[in-house]
Design a protein that fits this description.
two-stranded antiparallel sheet, binds 9-methylguanine, eight-stranded parallel sheet, alpha/beta, TIM Barrel
Length: 280
């Protein structure tokens, strides 16, 4: 596994776990209620996340929460491209990732200066593979069973770890055949995407299995329903549970932690790293 990702000229050092800050620019965003839907506030929040320790920022204009409706391409472009352009013009020091499944958004974001593509559909939309290959950017391939609108209705697996691993292995192979080199790939089991609580817990318990794929591992558990199911807490009170889950993931090999709660996660990772360095 490569220890660095070249994100369009900005280097993401993965020799230690890093924080990916979530910047939702959607009116119905997963957990910030659209507070950053406005360009100016999105830009302020991105800079705050850098101050708080984010090593990369994931900009998304289409909600992928369970039950969410799809967004038209024009609308998604209108939401995310001005944010990326502004942050690039302000010389934000960390790479920007574009959270999208749409080839046109991938292309426009890459032209605007994005440094990575984060696709919850693992480049399965028509044209996405080609757009990602042409961009020259790293890509995060995430596993999802079904589509956001219906994925939590009745997710079924015989062996969740084996099936998610097989899916990611197949997508890696498709990407390599399409000209995306392995050193540009990141994989993600997709916590909460077409999975019951038990599936999510099994994936977390066995997360180290995914290291056989030989790619950096990204996880995103921040504020998700599985944490609410375990603790009985509402979205805004799930940060401590998210920290615990993310530390368990890092202990099992995760290198990129996608979260709304950048400052506490960065602190937790400092503790984890200090202990690991003493132990080495
Ligand atoms: C966009 N998005 C929402 N949750 C996510 C997760 O867990 N992983 C990745 N890669 N993207 C996500």
């Amino acid at each position: 596994m490569g220890e660095v990702l070249d994100c369009g000229g900005k280097v993401l050092d993965l020799s230690r776990p890093v924080v990916m800050g979530i910047l939702n620019v959607t009116p119905d965003s997963f957990s910030d209620g659209g507070r950053y839907g406005d360009l100016g506030r999105a830009v302020v929040r991105a800079w705050e996340m850098v101050e708080e320790g984010a090593a990369i920022i994931d900009v998304g204009g289409e909600s992928t929460r369970p039950g969410a409706d799809p967004v038209e391409e024009e609308e998604e472009l209108r939401r995310v491209i001005p944010v990326i352009e502004r942050l690039v013009s302000e010389e934000i020091p960390v790479p920007l990732s574009i959270d999208t499944s749409k080839p046109a958004v991938m292309r426009a974001a890459a032209s605007a200066g994005a440094g990575m593509i984060n696709d919850v559909r693992a480049l399965r939309e028509p044209g996405a593979l080609e757009a990602a290959a042409e961009s020259g950017l790293p890509v995060c391939l995430m596993h999802m069973q079904g589509e956001p609108r219906s994925m939590q209705q009745a997710p079924v697996y015989e062996h969740v770890v084996a099936e998610v691993t097989a899916f990611l292995r197949e997508r890696i192979s498709v990407c390599i055949s399409a000209g995306i080199p392995p050193e540009r790939l990141v994989v993600d089991p997709g916590f909460g995407f077409g999975k019951t609580l038990r599936h999510n817990l099994t994936l977390l318990a066995r997360l180290d299995t995914f290291q056989v794929l030989g790619m950096p591992l990204l996880v995103g558990i921040s504020r998700k329903r599985m944490l609410g199911e375990l603790t009985g807490r509402e979205m805004e009170d799930r940060m401590p549970a998210g920290l615990a889950a993310h530390l368990l993931a890092v202990e099992r090999g995760a290198r990129i932690v996608r979260t709304h709660d950048v400052a506490p996660t960065a602190d937790a990772l400092k503790v984890w790293l200090a202990v690991r360095e003493i132990g080495d």
